[in-house]
Specification:
Elements (H helix, E strand, L loop, with lengths): L1 H11 L14 H28 L2 H5 L2 E8 L5 E2 L1 H10 L2 E16 L2 E14 L2 E2 L2 E12 L2 E11 L6
Parallel strand pairs: 1-7
Antiparallel strand pairs: 1-2, 3-4, 4-5, 4-6, 6-7
Helix pairs in contact: 1-2, 1-4
Length: 160
Amino acid sequence: MRRILALVVLVVAAAPLALGQAQGKPAAEKMAAGGNAEQELMQLEQKLADALVKGDFATFGSHLADDAVLTDPGGVVNTRAQFEADVKSGALKIESSKIEDMKVKTHGDVAVVTYKTTDKGTYKGTDISGDYRWIDVFVKKDGKWWLVAGQGTRIQKMPQ
Protein backbone atom coordinates (compact mmCIF):
# COMPACT_ATOMS: atom_id res chain seq x y z
CA MET A 1 0.00 0.00 0.00
CA ARG A 2 2.87 2.35 0.73
CA ARG A 3 4.35 2.05 -2.71
CA ILE A 4 0.98 2.53 -4.29
CA LEU A 5 0.56 5.79 -2.49
CA ALA A 6 3.95 6.88 -3.76
CA LEU A 7 2.79 6.03 -7.23
CA VAL A 8 -0.43 7.92 -6.74
CA VAL A 9 1.58 10.96 -5.68
CA LEU A 10 3.54 10.82 -8.86
CA VAL A 11 0.47 10.31 -10.96
CA VAL A 12 -1.39 13.16 -9.37
CA ALA A 13 1.45 15.52 -10.03
CA ALA A 14 0.98 15.02 -13.74
CA ALA A 15 -2.65 15.99 -14.24
CA PRO A 16 -2.97 19.79 -14.08
CA LEU A 17 -2.26 20.71 -17.68
CA ALA A 18 -5.32 22.90 -17.67
CA LEU A 19 -3.87 24.87 -14.79
CA GLY A 20 -0.72 25.76 -16.74
CA GLN A 21 -1.13 29.49 -16.32
CA ALA A 22 -0.94 31.44 -13.10
CA GLN A 23 -4.30 32.82 -12.03
CA GLY A 24 -5.04 36.48 -12.52
CA LYS A 25 -2.07 37.38 -14.77
CA PRO A 26 -1.94 37.89 -18.53
CA ALA A 27 -0.14 35.13 -20.48
CA ALA A 28 2.82 37.34 -21.45
CA GLU A 29 3.33 38.36 -17.82
CA LYS A 30 3.17 34.73 -16.69
CA MET A 31 5.81 33.69 -19.20
CA ALA A 32 8.11 36.52 -18.11
CA ALA A 33 7.69 35.46 -14.47
CA GLY A 34 8.67 31.84 -15.02
CA GLY A 35 5.32 30.73 -16.45
CA ASN A 36 7.09 28.62 -19.06
CA ALA A 37 8.68 26.42 -16.37
CA GLU A 38 5.33 26.27 -14.56
CA GLN A 39 3.52 25.11 -17.68
CA GLU A 40 6.32 22.67 -18.54
CA LEU A 41 6.15 21.06 -15.09
CA MET A 42 2.36 20.82 -15.14
CA GLN A 43 2.56 19.05 -18.50
CA LEU A 44 5.30 16.78 -17.18
CA GLU A 45 3.20 15.86 -14.14
CA GLN A 46 0.31 14.95 -16.46
CA LYS A 47 2.63 12.84 -18.61
CA LEU A 48 3.90 10.99 -15.54
CA ALA A 49 0.39 10.43 -14.20
CA ASP A 50 -0.79 9.09 -17.53
CA ALA A 51 2.17 6.71 -17.62
CA LEU A 52 1.32 5.35 -14.16
CA VAL A 53 -2.31 4.76 -15.06
CA LYS A 54 -1.03 2.76 -18.07
CA GLY A 55 1.55 0.91 -15.95
CA ASP A 56 4.28 2.39 -18.20
CA PHE A 57 7.34 2.70 -16.00
CA ALA A 58 9.63 3.37 -18.97
CA THR A 59 7.95 6.73 -19.57
CA PHE A 60 7.63 7.50 -15.88
CA GLY A 61 11.21 6.48 -15.18
CA SER A 62 12.54 8.74 -17.92
CA HIS A 63 12.08 11.68 -15.49
CA LEU A 64 12.67 9.89 -12.16
CA ALA A 65 16.13 10.48 -10.67
CA ASP A 66 18.15 7.35 -9.89
CA ASP A 67 18.43 8.48 -6.26
CA ALA A 68 14.82 9.68 -5.92
CA VAL A 69 13.17 9.44 -2.49
CA LEU A 70 9.45 8.65 -2.60
CA THR A 71 7.55 8.73 0.70
CA ASP A 72 4.11 7.18 0.47
CA PRO A 73 1.06 8.27 2.51
CA GLY A 74 1.84 5.53 5.02
CA GLY A 75 5.24 7.07 5.74
CA VAL A 76 7.25 4.36 3.99
CA VAL A 77 10.26 5.59 2.02
CA ASN A 78 10.74 3.91 -1.35
CA THR A 79 13.65 3.95 -3.76
CA ARG A 80 13.37 4.17 -7.52
CA ALA A 81 14.01 0.41 -7.75
CA GLN A 82 11.23 -0.42 -5.25
CA PHE A 83 8.75 1.82 -7.02
CA GLU A 84 9.73 0.41 -10.41
CA ALA A 85 9.21 -3.16 -9.15
CA ASP A 86 5.71 -2.31 -7.85
CA VAL A 87 4.67 -0.68 -11.12
CA LYS A 88 6.13 -3.35 -13.40
CA SER A 89 4.77 -6.27 -11.35
CA GLY A 90 1.28 -4.76 -11.22
CA ALA A 91 1.37 -4.62 -7.41
CA LEU A 92 0.44 -0.96 -7.78
CA LYS A 93 -2.51 -0.39 -10.08
CA ILE A 94 -3.90 3.09 -10.57
CA GLU A 95 -7.18 3.04 -12.50
CA SER A 96 -7.77 6.78 -12.41
CA SER A 97 -6.42 9.94 -10.83
CA LYS A 98 -8.09 13.35 -10.90
CA ILE A 99 -5.71 16.21 -10.15
CA GLU A 100 -6.88 19.50 -8.65
CA ASP A 101 -5.41 22.60 -7.05
CA MET A 102 -1.94 22.24 -8.59
CA LYS A 103 0.62 24.90 -7.79
CA VAL A 104 4.19 25.20 -9.06
CA LYS A 105 6.86 27.27 -7.33
CA THR A 106 10.18 27.57 -9.13
CA HIS A 107 13.46 28.56 -7.51
CA GLY A 108 16.01 28.60 -10.31
CA ASP A 109 16.63 24.99 -11.32
CA VAL A 110 14.52 23.61 -8.44
CA ALA A 111 10.73 23.42 -8.43
CA VAL A 112 8.15 22.37 -5.86
CA VAL A 113 4.80 21.09 -7.15
CA THR A 114 1.81 20.64 -4.82
CA TYR A 115 -1.63 19.28 -5.67
CA LYS A 116 -4.65 17.25 -4.56
CA THR A 117 -5.77 14.01 -6.17
CA THR A 118 -8.81 11.81 -6.08
CA ASP A 119 -7.55 8.35 -6.96
CA LYS A 120 -8.94 4.92 -7.66
CA GLY A 121 -6.58 1.99 -7.40
CA THR A 122 -5.17 -0.96 -5.51
CA TYR A 123 -1.88 -1.98 -3.97
CA LYS A 124 -1.29 -5.72 -3.73
CA GLY A 125 -5.04 -6.21 -3.97
CA THR A 126 -5.94 -3.70 -1.22
CA ASP A 127 -8.13 -0.74 -2.20
CA ILE A 128 -6.21 2.53 -1.87
CA SER A 129 -8.85 4.74 -3.45
CA GLY A 130 -9.32 8.15 -1.85
CA ASP A 131 -8.24 11.78 -1.69
CA TYR A 132 -4.57 12.74 -1.26
CA ARG A 133 -2.34 15.81 -1.00
CA TRP A 134 1.06 15.56 -2.72
CA ILE A 135 4.32 17.43 -2.92
CA ASP A 136 6.94 16.72 -5.59
CA VAL A 137 10.40 18.25 -5.89
CA PHE A 138 12.05 18.57 -9.31
CA VAL A 139 15.57 19.59 -10.28
CA LYS A 140 16.47 20.78 -13.78
CA LYS A 141 19.73 19.26 -14.99
CA ASP A 142 21.09 19.49 -18.52
CA GLY A 143 17.81 21.06 -19.69
CA LYS A 144 15.58 18.29 -18.29
CA TRP A 145 13.36 18.21 -15.19
CA TRP A 146 14.00 15.26 -12.84
CA LEU A 147 11.71 14.15 -10.02
CA VAL A 148 14.01 13.82 -6.99
CA ALA A 149 11.50 13.58 -4.13
CA GLY A 150 7.80 13.05 -3.61
CA GLN A 151 5.52 12.66 -0.61
CA GLY A 152 1.82 11.96 -0.25
CA THR A 153 -0.67 12.37 2.59
CA ARG A 154 -4.11 10.79 2.64
CA ILE A 155 -6.85 13.32 3.37
CA GLN A 156 -8.82 12.12 6.39
CA LYS A 157 -12.45 13.03 6.82
CA MET A 158 -12.92 14.97 10.04
CA PRO A 159 -15.68 13.88 12.43
CA GLN A 160 -18.79 16.05 12.22
